[in-house]
Structure formats: structure tokens, C-alpha cells
Amino acid sequence: MITESYFASISGPPLANNTAIARDAGIYEHTLHPNHSTTAVLKKSSVPRNALAASPTHVFAAQDDKSTVHVYARPKGSQEAIVTFSERIRAVALQDDVLFLGTQEGRLIAWETCTGRQVSTPACHVQAISCIATTPFHIITGSDDSNLNVWALPRLLELGSTAEHEPERSLADHRAAITSVAVTTSINPDTSLCVSASKDKSCVIWNYTSGTALRTILLPSHPLCIALDPCARAVYASTEDGSLYAVELFDDKALIGPRSDEDSSMAVQVSAAFGAVSPTEVGPASCLAVSYDGTVLLSGHPRGQILRWDLSTRTDSTELANLNAAVTNLVFTPALPEAAGPGRRTAAATVVKPFMGSRTYNYTAQLESDMCEDEGQSPTAFSKMLTTKGLPRDFLEVGIMAFQQQQQQQPSTVIPESTAAGGSELEELRKENAALREVIAEQRALQKKTLEKYLGSQSK
């Protein structure tokens, strides 16, 4: 049976004396489906908003108002390492085996957890980085300076590069600090969408590959956090007054795309909330997360509650848990292993602490499957080379075909058989060539005699 889990982090002291909750608990792993339950508790962490990331093997948690990141091993359920950086960390995000960290000074740090390689950018934001979103090819950073920067992931992690790192483009359409950013999983340039939320009471939908602002959404109060539907059909936003809003992007009155009748420069005013909570009893949602199938929305609140909202019926919420401290992050883990990375055969057994400077890096990972032929699957190129005596047959065939193609492409200097068969024609050509050579020799001799006579008359 498929299970769906999520991580929840807290920050700050306990709100009440509750002996049922461990005093030093900081991160909780919950199972949402089929039945809600707490499966693991990670201790000694106080995690700010947008500063929690989880992989199939590890959990990374930046500490509130500190320059340290706590790393937890999920199989062991314990802390594996404490990594210290040179600047205070405000936000983290994970893409494959690379952890991206936003600093208080506006720098972006990339840490390859399997090699220990660390790449740091200049302070391209003039204020702190408040949130980070990742795709397989891009990194998007939001800052308190009201701007978003789009970074090319291959260029940022390029080996041997001496050029100073700079963003691919900047997205500047907000007038206040960025509070949250969400991005789609699409890698098509036409559907590469991201949504940013700002304290200027607006959310902007962007095409981050072209840098185009597709639509602006105006809210009654400034949004604290946003979440995108897995298929990018809707945007969910939590505002400071305790309301929750759902903005459909492709309904009968589409906001973006070819079905949209309005100009992209026209802002959309959203006033009807699909849910609301009491600001005094629960508090406005500080974090949101959408389930794998897009049917459930989870919200974390300053009073410790985690609420579940049914997106199909939009009915009242139900309380899943009370963590007795301010909930700051909700992060879902992939329900299917393929969702974490198609074709991945390795996993990070342990992390390698970051190292500044040039050196030879070793890739440390654990093989997740047998590299040889599995039952019912075709053998890999590596398994063929490993089990074959000498060179594999298909390798030899490819090499022979390559040599044959090269010979066919070279110009032929052999006289065609049809010409060789005609001996009389060949003999005539030889005679004509000999006659031409005799004429050339006679002309050269005549030229020589004429030149000698001319030189003799000049000397007299």
C-alpha cells in the first residue's frame, strides 16, 4: 500500500506544559495516508520558516537565527551532523543531492552533500534571502529586497569555472519583501511557471525562463505563504488576517494561457476566501503544503495546530495534530520512489561536510540496486562489460560499422572497371599524354634558346 508522509518543524518554546510531547522535539514525521500517525521525532532543532528540506535519506534543518544546519539520518532517526557556515542561514531547499542555502547577507550557497563541494555566490540580493524554490535546471531565490533571482543550475555547479556567479535574470515587480515562492515541476519553457508572494498584498505569476510577469493577484491582506497544486491548476495562499484563498488558474475564466480573455497587465482582485481560522485561537497559517494527488491541503499555525483542508469539497478543516509550539514548515515526501528522481540508482548513505577551496572530490553514495541484470529487465551496458570475456559482441559490431562508414566516406582513386575494360581507350589516353609532353618539351627548349639570344645581345 502506498503511504504518504510529511515533515513538520516547530520553532520557539512550548506553549503549554504537555508531558505527552517531548521537550526537545523539533521535527516530526507524520504519515497522512492511509491513517494519520506520528512515525518519527527528530530532536534539538528550532527551524525558521522556509528552512526545512527532506530527501529519501536525510533531513536538513537550518536553525533559527544561527549559521548552523542540523542533518538527520532518516533510517536511524537521529542527528548525523551539525554543519556550520560563515553566515546566518535564512532559507534552504534541496534539489537531488545538492542543498541550497540562502543567507542573511543575500548570498546563495550550494552544498553537494555527496562530495562536500561548496559553491558560494556574491551577494546578488541587497537584503536577506527569505525563500528558495528549485527545479531540475533552475534555482529561484526570493529576498527581503522585493526581488527574485533566477539561477541556472548547470552554470552554478560547473566544475573549474573561474567566472563570478551571477543570476540568469531578475524578476522585479513587487514593492515589498518576498515572503514565499512556489514553482511548477515542468521543464518546458512555455509552462515554466512560478508564483511569488509579497508583503505588498500581491502574488505574481511568472514565466521564470523568459522573465515575464503573466498575472498579478491582489489580496485583502499580505500573504504569509503560498502553495501550488501539483499540476499547477491553482494557487493557495494564507494571509495575515487568518484567511485561506484558492485561485484557479485555468477554470472557465482562465487567468493565464491562450484561454485568458484579459490582458496580462490587468490585476485580479481576490476577495472570497474558501477557509478561515481564528487569529486568536489558531493564528494565521505560517506554512502550507499540498498532498501528492492535490486533494488535501495542510496548514501549520503559530498555536501548534496542523489542519487538514479537503480541496474537493472545500469544507471546514479538521485538526490532525497539535505540536505545542509554532509550526513553521510542512514538507511532503514523494509518495512514489520514482518521483524523487527517475532512474536513480544511488542514495546518500552519509553526508560529506562542505569544504571551501580546490581539491579532488570523492563521490560518496550507496548503490540502491544491483548493477547487473535484474530479472525481467534488459542488461545494462555496465553489466555486459562486466560479465563478457573480452569485448562484448555488440561493441565490436559498432566499431566495425564505424570503420566501414569511414571507408565509404573517403574519395575513391581506383579506376572504374568499365574504364579498365576498354584497353584501347586507355592506350589512346597514354599516347595523347606523351604527345602533349613532347610539345611542352619543345616549347621549353625554344623558350630557352630565345632567352639566351636576348641575354647575348644585351651583353654586347
From TrEMBL:
Biological source species: Microdochium trichocladiopsis
Gene Ontology annotations for the cellular component aspect, listed alphabetically: nuclear pre-replicative complex; rixosome complex
Subcellular location per the Swiss-Prot or TrEMBL entry: Nucleus
InterPro entries: WD40/YVTN_repeat-like_dom_sf (IPR015943), WD40_repeat_dom_sf (IPR036322), WD40_rpt (IPR001680), WDR18/Ipi3/RID3 (IPR045227)
SUPFAM superfamilies, per database record: WD40 repeat-like
Official protein name in the record: Pre-rRNA-processing protein IPI3
WD repeat start-end pairs: 171-216
Residue ranges of the region described as Disordered: 407-426
Role: Component of the RIX1 complex required for processing of ITS2 sequences from 35S pre-rRNA.
One GO biological process term: rRNA processing
One Pfam assignment: WD40
Membership in a protein family: Belongs to the WD repeat IPI3/WDR18 family.
Stored SMART domains: WD40
Keywords attached to this entry: Nucleus, Repeat, rRNA processing, WD repeat
PANTHER family registered for this protein in UniProt: WD REPEAT-CONTAINING PROTEIN 18, WD-REPEAT PROTEIN 18
Quaternary assembly: Component of the RIX1 complex, composed of IPI1, RIX1/IPI2 and IPI3 in a 1:2:2 stoichiometry. The complex interacts (via RIX1) with MDN1 (via its hexameric AAA ATPase ring) and the pre-60S ribosome particles.
Gene3D superfamilies: YVTN repeat-like/Quinoprotein amine dehydrogenase
